[in-house]
Amino acid sequence: MAVTVSLVLLFGLVLFFLLRGHTLGYGSAFIAAGFGFFLASTGAAAPINQLTGAVITAIQQL
Predict the structure, then answer these.
(1) How much is the pTM?
(2) Residue 18's closest CA among 35, 42, 41?
(3) pLDDT values of the chain reduced to their tens digit, one per residue, 62 residues
(4) Which residues span the domain enclosing 44?
(5) Phi, psi (degrees; rounded to nearest 5) at 34
(6) How many domains is the chain built from?
(7) Among candidates 34, 32, 42, 48, which has minimal Cα distance to 2?
(8) Cβ–Cβ contacts within 10 Å for residue 12, how many?
(9) How far is CA 10 from the centre of its chain?
(10) How far apart are CA 35 and CA 14, in angstroms?
(11) Do residues 41 and 1 make contact, with C-beta atoms less than 8 angstroms apart?
């Protein structure tokens, strides 16, 4: 768990700077995929899934 959380922070930080610096390419896609993979294995996965479901339901209700 501790390794996963630190990898999430590392990938998130690198992805933030890549997006901010407009350096988008294959490396950024790899960082984004790694960030999503490690984020999904943390405790944040359930709230993110619930938020996504709520947003999709709200859009369908419009």
Answers:
(1) 0.49
(2) 35
(3) 455 557 777 777 887 887 788 766 777 777 777 777 777 777 777 787 788 788 888 888 88
(4) 2-61
(5) -65, -40
(6) 1
(7) 42
(8) 16
(9) 12
(10) 9
(11) no
Task: Kindly state the tokens that stand for 28.
Answer: 């950024």
Q: Which residues are CB-contacts of 7 (< 8 A; sequence separation ≥ 6)?
A: 34, 38
| Nearest C-alpha neighbor of 15 from the set 4, 31, 3, 26 | 31
Q: Is the dihedral of CA 5, 9, 7, 36 positive or negative?
A: positive
Work out whether the CA dihedral 26, 48, 12, 20 comes out positive or negative.
positive
Instruction: Write the DSSP symbol of residue 49.
Output: H
Q: What is the pLDDT of residue 1?
A: 46
